Amino acid sequence: MALWDNRKHTDSLVTEIIPMVMQTLPTPQTAAKPPALDTVIHRRQTRPVSVGNITIGGGHPVVVQSMINEDTLDLEGSVAGIRRLHEIGCEIVRVTVPSMAHAKALAQIKQKLIQTYQEVPLVADVHHNGMKIALEVAKHVDKVRINPGLYVFEKPKSDRTEYTQAEFEQIGAKIKETLAPLVISLRDQGKAMRIGVNHGSLAERMLFTYGDTPEGMVESALEFIRICESLDFRNLVISLKASRVPVMLAAYRLMVRRMDELGMDYPLHLGVTEAGDGEYGRIKSTAGIGTLLAEGIGDTIRVSLTEAPEKEIPVCYSILQALGLRKTMVEYVACPSCGRTLFNLEDVLHEVREATKHLTGLDIAVMGCIVNGPGEMADADYGYVGKQPGYISLYRGREEIKKVPEDQGVEELINLIKADDRWIDP
User: Fold this and answer.
1) Is residue 17 one of the residues assigned to a domain?
2) Binding site for [4Fe-4S] cluster: which residues?
3) Which of 16, 73, 110, 413 has the largest count of CB atoms under 10 Å?
4) 252-288: b or e for each residue (b if 16 or more CB lie within 10 Å)?
5) How confident is the model over 189-236, as pLDDT tens digits?
6) CA 199 to CA 243: how far, in whole Å?
7) Which of 96-105, 116-125, 127-136, 330-339 is predicted least confidently?
8) Annotated binding site: which residue ranges?
9) Do 212 and 245 share a domain, yes or no?
10) Are residues 346 and 306 in the same domain?
């Protein structure tokens, strides 16, 4: 009987304890799903700045620029150079104006363009105490680019060890006095200015105060911005170029941070200056420009190559297309080839590209085998896949449309694009 009573007591005790224990356990919760990864580049919001019939910033597509290398006094050569660039997609063209004669020549260049071709947005590059030149050229172009480090020449002193605050402010006042007429002219004409800082040409007092640093570049730009704002002029585009990619990246990132702190929303012109030529020049430019664009920074770009200016434009568009910021040509998706590849992938890709490169807005995949083909090219408009020896399978999106002999593959791909009414004769 005692045993039974103890059992009863134990059972009663357990019955009382279990609910208490259960009440102290945390309430089970469904694990939160991780946020979806964003694959869209969100561009920094900037004010729109008009340059002729092109708008930089304000949510407009990233604008492509370049610069002719003809002497501006060569009227025919300059008109031809501007036209060549514009015809292949360069939306704004820059010219250099080292003298008053060059500035006046731009009036004739602009007129010849209108008579023989069409209006093209033009930017004039002004350096070295160029106030009078800038005032003249501002009558004939849509934007004037000035370099803060060179616009007012500061004669260096060999024995200088520092700049006093008074000296710094005195030169700042001289800069405002020299810059104001140009700002007022551009403001009253509804034209634009690029404040183009170069790492290699900072003013001496900026070097003494901030060193050869991104901070010096940013402060140089901000000094000129404040002068423009004090005169109620805000049609500004800012650039902070350097030949070293890490310096260029740091300068633009710092500029964005400082502008955000100051409530400024000016569009940015991106470039790696003096990038060189060939493959390395292209890679270097892409590393700098592409990195910032991927962060949402940048509204207009120029790839600076030591080559014919026309060679710069395809690089610009390739950068923009790779990032999904503009679609101006066919996007080709192609596997790297391996032992499973059923045809000469390099030759076929070249053949497909040559036949379709004039089209715009299409994605075309060329895949060597069936293993990865349909999956890797799922987002393509059309697919060209080696599915069995001697034959090509053609796809529209994910759907296999037909199988054709290998020697008819490219021809049948073109026929498929034509059937969808997406073909344009070259």
Assistant:
1) no
2) 335, 338, 369, 376
3) 413
4) bbbbbebbeeeebebbbbbbbbbbbeeeebbebbbbb
5) 999 999 999 998 898 888 888 889 999 999 999 999 999 999 999 999
6) 8
7) 330-339
8) 335, 338, 369, 376
9) yes
10) no
